[in-house]
Amino acid sequence: MGIRCRLGVNVDHVATLRQVRRAMYPDPVEAALLCELAGADQITVHLREDRRHIQDRDVDLLRRVVKTELNLEMAATQEMVGIALKVRPDTVTLVPERRDEITTEGGLDVAQNREPIQRAIRFLKEGGIRTSLFIDPDLDQVRASHKVDAHAIEIHTGRYAESRSFKERTDELAKILDVAKTATKVGMGVAAGHGLHYYNVLPVARIAEIQELNIGHAVVARALMVGFEPAVRDMVQLLREARA
Ligand code: PXP
Questions:
Q1: Which partner for 111 in 144, 150, 198, 213 could form a disulfide, CB atoms 3.0-4.6 Å apart?
Q2: Nearest to residue 71, comparing CAs of 117, 10, 15, 114?
């Protein structure tokens, strides 16, 4: 039996539900602790420039209470790098950000934005923080990520998740596999995520080179129905089955 990939649970949408009322609850920090108790290997949050869900207070508290690892998703801006250096998450995943998007819609164009990305990576590395770049399954982006000295990549699985035909899904999976293998060969860590849920995660989780999946919406949505513990356990179980 192979080692299952690690599960990072993204708790942003617990904060989304809180922010629609600007209330004190539900609290993503409480949710994070329940996720860890149920077997999550990492807690992931995206501190957006517009603070639409996760707030600075959430990130500060999470850093103090998370016992697994904290993965902070953020844009490669001076403000965010400053926050990361203060908070010191285990990993920073750099993501592109557009104010009008519903969620992170595409991967980073690393080659086109080389300078700010490289600068952010340099500061983060000096601060002892592991860096990952959220990229589309595209070999040019892997090469560019390697050149800017990132520790890891996170492959954007959104197109795979949204594919409607067998052919499209197979093509997207082939690209994900190719990128995962290439990144591994050059010594980079490999994560994947976006749009993954209980019914589409298995083929991605079977790819041996993928070490970690970050899953948010599907886990939080299931937790709304059955609670965090079964929602996280079910996902961990699927990740185990994928490599059994
Ligand atoms: N990974 C990254 C880099 C993301 O930006 C997101 C969405 O915030 C996720 C994973 C999780 O995506 P989803 O909520 O669709 O599972």
A1: 144
A2: 10
- Quick check: is 151 catalytic? no
pLDDT tens figures, 179-233: 999 999 999 999 999 999 999 999 999 999 999 999 999 999 999 999 999 999 9
* Contact (CB, 8 A) for 193 and 8: yes
160 lines ligand 1 (CB under 6 A): no
Q: pTM here?
A: 0.97
Whether 154 is catalytic is: no
- Quickly count: other Cβ atoms within 10 Å of residue 2's Cβ: 10
CA of 223 relative to ligand 1 center, distance in Å: 16
Residue 12 near residue 46 (C-beta atoms within 8 A): yes
Distance CA 43, CA 223 (A): 15
145, HSE (Cβ side, Cα atoms, 13 Å): 34
- The kind and range of the H/E element at 212 are strand 212-215
Cβ 91 under 6 angstroms from ligand 1: no
73 flagged as catalytic: yes
Q: 50, 53, 103: which to mutate for ligand 1, most atoms within 8 A of CB?
A: 103
6-242: CATH topology: TIM Barrel (3.20.20)
pLDDT tens digits, 43-72: 999 999 999 999 999 999 999 999 999 999
Ligand 1 touching residue 134 (CB < 6 A): yes
Q: How confident is the model at residue 1 (pLDDT cuts 50, 70, 90)?
A: low
